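User: Show me sequence and structure for the first protein, then do the same for the second.

Assistant: Starting with the first protein.
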Amino acid sequence: MIIRWNKPSDQGSSITGYRVYLRRADLTYDIERTYCDASESLSTECQIPLLQLRSDPFNLVLGNAVYTKVIAVNAYGDSPASPVGEGALIVLVPDAPVDLLNDPTVTNNQVIRLSWSDGASNGGATIIDYRIIYDQSTGFMVTLVEGLTQRSFVTPIGLLIEGRVYQFRVYARNSVGFS
């Protein structure tokens, strides 16, 4: 996660660094020294791995918002803390769908009906839709359909050739991207 802030007025004394505070799961704020140690830096951004936010002392989980405050430092001392940012959500791509099944009650030599279940985690954001790719016995996967909002699909008549072996994969998409 990238945290950026605007350089405040230095009140006549050059800014010598910044301290970045992040809100913890218990709603208190703690300074982030590992990835955002700007105490001797004039950079107005830092990058924190999501794993760090999900670990001690912050202990945030998927779907939590990340709130930050920044304090500028100069010869006069510390500035007042910046207003708290709007809060970016911790989200990841969803887990891949599981239990991809061929429905034998519909499948014949011309069509296949596929169904699946969502993976264990939606990544902290709602699943938007699904994409199915398949191999037409060529060794190359191509997109069959995307934008599906249901967890099932019937291939169009004429797509399949009897006697060929097909492989299908399904991907779920949330606001971050595909599984």
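Switching to the second protein now.
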Amino acid sequence: MKSDGMIRLISALFLFAFIVLTAPVFAAETLPLQKMIDEAEKGDVITPPPGIYKGPIFIDKPITLDGLGKVTIDAGGEGSVIVLETDGATIRNMTLLNSGDQHNDIDSGVQVRGNNNVIKDNVIDDCLFGVDLQQSNNNIVRRNKIGSKKFHLGVRGDAVRLWYSTRNRITDNVIHGSRDFVVWYSANNEIKNNHISGGRYGLHFMYAKYNLVEGNTIEGNSVGVFLMYSDDVVISNNRIVRALGATGMGIGMKESSNVDIVDNEILYAATGIYLDVSPFQPDTTNRIYRNTIAFNNIGVMFLNDWTGNEIKDNRFENNISQVSVAAFASAKRNLWDANYWDDYEGFDRDQDNVGDFPYDVRVFADRIWMDIPHAAYFKGSPVLTTLDFLERLAPFTEPILMLRDAKPKMSSAFSTTPTKDPRREELRGVGEDFDPFGLKERLKNRN
């Protein structure tokens, strides 16, 4: 009996020790973080003693909150970890954990409701949304590590969310496992040098004009970058890799005009570039220059027979299909010029790096899965391969001309050297009054 009692006592002691050691150790309640903030003056720098502090935290004055890499704020699963309702504040070197899980409340690591704030060098983890900016301008979000809650992908929150926000700079962040990075109704923002992985949409723009996307690595997402009704966007020098799945795509556009897609690498995607009624505005073009489009199922995919795209000096290599149209139609009404095609079968007898005859793509057996998309499952099978060979050998009908590049390059080196795009300077300051749904007027009337 004594031995049974001793065993129970030892077990209880081990259980107690486990609970004590694994429970979060909060900093002394004699000086809670919210009280430090409330007692601070404008412009103060607050460096709390190392420890774990309870959130949510509310900041309504321009102060600097610096954790020096030793301070954690845990919201306890309720609300946002930090709500920032001021201009000119800085949050840096903090670890922000355990927001609530309510999408209606946009429970976040940091909710920003102000201008000219800086959120940098923080770790934001187990937070439904990462950094949420609503009607907030001229903010900087830099060098943060951001992850969402471990929910099913579709019900996680967004790593960064811009809503009616302009002239913000989102740079050098590492984002993994969040749902999307969204830019909605927001103009003239810079999104540069971020690493975005393990999500659904790497970047998703909706009614968002005049934005710059440059130097990002976007890998292992369902979609790399998608523009919906978003004009005058520059997508430059990004590396977009492994956008896989049945609907995976590197860069997609729906009814978006005057877009520059230049100097990107788009690799290992189901579809490299997808174009849905783009450009949409009359008398506009989309410029697709100097991209490497390689190792994709389809290099460039059009929803239908559309026009207005200039596809120049790109490198098409090792794609199963270089170009396709979802309907049985052609893409020849776009400008195809001086691209490198690894399946070009011509010669260059005058050694000018231009093929002696045009690069033509004609549709033979491919029309089967263009007309019946489910038949694409058998693409590459012996049956379709044989049928395609017979069609090319002795066509039963006149094959449709998919595209013609009159001056195909013989070398995969780009013909033009990337230079600073003058449109990036033109777009600075443009769109500051961008208000597609008249929100500013409605808010003014409400006040």
